[in-house]
Automatic annotation (TrEMBL), chain A:
Protein name per the record: NADH dehydrogenase, subunit L (Ubiquinone)
GO biological process, one term: electron transport coupled proton transport
Location in or out of the cell: Membrane
Assigned keywords, A-Z: Membrane, Transmembrane, Transmembrane helix
NADH-Ubiquinone oxidoreductase (complex I) chain 5 N-terminal domain ranges (all copies): 68-121
Signal peptide: none
UniProt-listed InterPro entries: NADHpl_OxRdtase_5_subgr, ND/Mrp_TM, NU5C-like, Proton_antipo_N
GO molecular function: NADH dehydrogenase (ubiquinone) activity; NADH dehydrogenase activity
Iron-sulfur listed as a keyword: no
Domain NADH:quinone oxidoreductase/Mrp antiporter transmembrane residue range list: 137-423
Lineage summary: Archaea, Methanobacteriati, Methanobacteriota, Stenosarchaea group, Halobacteria
Source organism, top-level taxon: Archaea
TrEMBL record, chain B:
Keywords: Membrane, Transmembrane, Transmembrane helix
Transmembrane segments: 12-33, 68-90
Lineage, broadest ranks: Archaea, Methanobacteriati, Methanobacteriota, Stenosarchaea group, Halobacteria
Domain of life: Archaea
Protein's UniProt name: NADH dehydrogenase-like complex, subunit J
UniProtKB/TrEMBL annotation, chain C:
Similarity comment text for this entry: Belongs to the complex I subunit 4L family.
UniProt cross-references to Pfam families, sorted A to Z: Oxidored_q2
GO cellular component, one term: NADH dehydrogenase complex
Keywords, sorted A to Z: Membrane, Transmembrane, Transmembrane helix, Transport
Keyword tRNA-binding: no
Database matches in PANTHER family: NADH-UBIQUINONE OXIDOREDUCTASE CHAIN 4L, NADH-UBIQUINONE OXIDOREDUCTASE SUBUNIT ND4L
Main location: membrane
Keyword Transmembrane on entry: yes
UniProt name for this protein: NADH dehydrogenase-like complex subunit K
Compartments (UniProt record): Membrane
Membrane topology qualifier: Multi-pass membrane protein
Highest taxon of source: Archaea
Single GO BP term: ATP synthesis coupled electron transport
Amino acid sequence: MAGILDFAPAIVLLPFLSFLIALGAGRYMPKGGALAGIGATAGSFVLSIATFFAVSGGQTYNQTIYTWAEGLDAINLTFGLLIDPLSSMMLVIVTLVALLVHIFSLGYMNDEGETGLPRYYAGLGLFTASMLGFVVADNLLMAFMFFELVGLCSYLLIGFHFRQDGPPSAAKKAFLVTRFGDYFFLIGVVAVFATFGSAAFAGPDAFPVLAEEALAGEHSVNTFLGMGEQAWFTVVGLLVLGGVVGKSAQFPLHTWLPDAMEGPTPVSALIHAATMVAAGVYLVARMYGFYVLTPTTLAIIALIGGFTALFAATMGVVKKEIKQVLAYSTISQYGYMMLGLGAGGYVAATFHLMTHAFFKALLFLGAGSVIIAMHHNENMWDMGGLKDKMPVTYYAFLSGSLALAGIVPFAGFWSKDEVLYETLIHGLGGSPILLAAYAMGLLAVFFTGFYTFRMVFLTFHGEPRSGTARDPHGVRWNVKGPLAVLGVLAATTGLVNMVPVEKLFGIEGIDFLHQFLDGSFSSLNAHHYAELIPYSSGYIGGEAGTVAIGAAVSLGFALGGAALAHVLYNVPEPVEHTDKLGSIKTVLYNNYYQDEYQVWIATGVVQPISRVLDKFDQGIVDGVVNGISSVSLFAGGRVKRVQTGVVSNYAALLTLGLTALLLGLGLLGGWFA
Amino acid sequence: MTTKPQLKLGSHLVPGLAAVALFVVMAVVFLGASFPNPQGFAEGANITASIGYSMFNLDFGDVAGEGFLAAFIVIAVTLDVALDGAIHLARREEGGQMRTILTDGGRELKRTLFDDEEDDR
Amino acid sequence: MVPPQYYLLLSAAVFCIGVFGLLTRRNALLFLMSVELMLNAANINLVAFSLYWGNVTGQTFTLFTLALAAAEVAVGIGIILVLYRNFDDVDVTNATTMRW
């Protein structure tokens, strides 16, 4: 089958090529290698679009490209490509966002006279390439390797301004916190190999399929620790989930993400919208056929998601820096995706992943535009009144904000509503955990609406509150272009999956995403997952009634939050209202003391243990080694004195030795008998 | 005035005790060993001639012996080499300088330099 | 015939005298002489056992040993000359440059 899908490896390789070019020749090129990156990501984008349409036409691609370790017992470690609707959709998202971020960087980095641009563009190229490699990975080990590469690139890019104090520390934190989760992921990968003998996502020996058959009793798999298959699969699922929680910044491993705002803003856009953070959720979606088999894992995912959505949203309410607000909104939105996945809404979560990618990239790039205008001052209390000075940014940002807050008909409304709807009906079907998660998600909608519009009003409305806000720095086409593209997308992508409209008015066939994700491999499509979901559905007043009620409630909460923000902050001279929160304010400013308690765990628990182990290592292990060496040295120093250099002494030793030898032999051989 | 050799006693003889001990051990072993009856040579056999024959692998001798021609050649060569080596070791270069053997640890060189230095002074 | 024990005792005595000289003397020339004694102790054994077995091999071998002893002395004298040149003495205990 020679088709466009045979060019799929090029999608990954082009950004990698741009990485090599920017690294090797970037400093001899105009714009520090940006053009190579733009060209490569544009090429990847075009190929991704072509792939997308090919997949829409029913084509799929699942090939092993390279076997890099051949196992003795049929376990081969391979690199391969799996192109199905999910990955082709993700390819389009990643390449589009990466392309726009590259273009935006021209305005944010080049025009601002930053140094080290080849390094920056090399990082972007590698980042994009690793995420694309992760997206198309056809087995869990390859996914893990690219997952780690993504983490490495985010480390490199967050710490781009390595001469300042903040960024290196933030980069280290991001790296270490995600690494903590990845540690569990790695064990999970090994567990999958040990259990199924294969880690492929699709094909004849796909491990989700094997797990399904094992649970149906068709054949047996290896389980460990004396667990049954169901329990063991739950353990494996939770291990892999560790990596997801770290990467997607879910509670309690979310602490790295707000700090990661130290990186350049386009990098934040890339991290939050399309690459690093999306990787975690994408991984769950990728192996959803496995998770869907274990209700416990699903419930945990849903609970983590719902809790994180609410938890992060409350912290976003009090932040002063525009990027901090966006960071917490990212955590919160990824919480929704986890909630959707945990609640059995595979399509809904994927949908939210897509819409979020667009509107969050838009918001970050918009924030970047504002930051350029404000001469790199990120404090919203120094802004205000930027609406008239930078209309393109304002309207694009507004489009993104409406999407984020979930106001109809912007993208975020459709996807978030579908996530909540899936949670609601499955919760009503007899799952109190999901109902609790739903309540948290719904409450988070209110906070989302509030902090989003607080941010908009503080930044763009009212009177300018500082000199720079009165006379902002202008931005050029390379900033406005990406904003315009994403602004349109944020307003419209929701229309690809208008389930509420379909359900309410009975119009068939406008849930395009559902249909799209239903295509291709029978073990990987949404229909198959829907059959496996361990939940039953319940409705209030019929399906259409539930849809209407769910949508109305979530829209109402979002509008309520927005209205509160309007009352409090859309005034010419807004003041801080955080003091009204009383003691909660301190808690929120300190992010619920998450960092503090994690640092306490590190210094209060882990450090003493490490110290004891260090003592053991230094004292006993090293002591034995050092002791042996010093004994040898001492003995050598003494014994070498035998070598006097005087011939007579050697002769005496020889004589004595011969005598002793004769005596010994004689005694043994009975010569003296 | 002539001097007679004198027996010097002292602590320098202590290492000799090792040799005495070796002798004691060997003596005890030999005296304790038993041998079968010796065979001896036949009456009137020409020992010297037999040695000569065996040296050249000839089988004419009265007494049995093994051939030593190869050993003879090897010893001849060894003697030659030893002679050359002795001459080589013993030869002294003209002008009192020793260039053939450099095992003096740089002593000669140092002395030369030192003398030169003194000359300069 | 004389029993072989006597020959063995004689040779052991000669050998040990050689060793004694080696251990107690410091003069290189006396060393050479001591070594000669030790070599000839071996020769006594060879000749004695040649007679004992009724075979001339031992005696022939002794001739070669004598030749080797000559070679050894030649080289030994050369070494002593060098020793004297380098250390201005034939005292073997002075030459300690090859100690540890």
